[in-house]
Amino acid sequence: MANTGDLFKGCFIKINNELFQVLEYVHRTPGNLRAFYQVVLRNVKSGKQLEHRFRAGESVEMIRVEFKEMQYLYKDGTNLVLMDPETFDQVYVDQVLIGPALKFLKEEMIVKVSFDGDTALSAEAPTFVILNISYTEPGVKGDTATNTLKPATLDNGAEVMVPLFVNEGDKVKVDTRTGDYVERVK
């Protein structure tokens, strides 16, 4: 058995026979009271988030999970079809597990998936993706001096704010965690 000092962001724990993923945790020591951990958890089955307080040093049942890198093939309703590049086995994963990074996924991208047996617990898109700009207002020469942004539509349909000097047809690097433009790629 592990204790609360062993918790980390992304780990899986079992509370009352239900599986939870740790989204955030903070160690607090208020004044002359006892220290505790304030933890934000996501229920793996229902997807609901809740906050839980653990005493410092309290025992916690941690679950071992297997991580696999899988290739995204296509979207089927509310599921994503992923393929293991080694065995070519296809797995259906609920799109809720990817979260807001779903809009930046493109076919053949590699997604990191965690499994407990045959059940997918979480899925993580690549941190940075390179996509083409399919539409944006044309840039004007000399617009690089200010830090003004304009909307741009990417080739997979997602919208992102880009600097004025970025034009249609350019490749841009996007952070999937925040949805922000990072840089223009040559």
Structural commentary:
The protein is mainly beta and 186 residues long. It folds into three domains: 2-63, SH3 type barrels (Roll), CATH 2.30.30; 66-124, Nucleic acid-binding proteins (OB fold (Dihydrolipoamide Acetyltransferase, E2P)), CATH 2.40.50.140; 128-185, Nucleic acid-binding proteins (OB fold (Dihydrolipoamide Acetyltransferase, E2P), Beta Barrel). It is 0% helix and 55% strand. The protein has strands spanning 2-3, 12-15, 18-28, 36-43, 49-55, 59-63, 66-76, 79-83, 90-94, 110-116, 119-124, 128-136, 149-154, 159-163, 171-175, 180-185. A hairpin with a 2-residue loop joins β10 (110-116) and β11. The model has no long low-confidence stretch (mean pLDDT 88).
- How many DSSP-defined strands? 16
- CATH topology term of the largest domain: SH3 type barrels
Helix-and-strand structural type: mainly beta
**CATH class annotation of the largest domain:** Mainly Beta
Task: List unreliable stretches of 5+ residues.
Answer: none
Distance between the termini: 50 Å
Strand content: over 45%
Provide the number of structural domains. Answer: 3
What coarse outline follows from CA principal-axis ratios?
flat
Architecture of the largest domain, according to CATH?
Roll
Mean pLDDT score: 88
- SS element count, helices: 0
Radius of gyration over all CA atoms, rounded: 21 Å
User: Helix and strand string, N-terminal first?
Assistant: EEEEEEEEEEEEEEEE
Helix content: under 10%
The largest sheet is: 6 strands, antiparallel
Placed side by side, the strands forming the largest sheet appear as 1-6-2-3-4-5
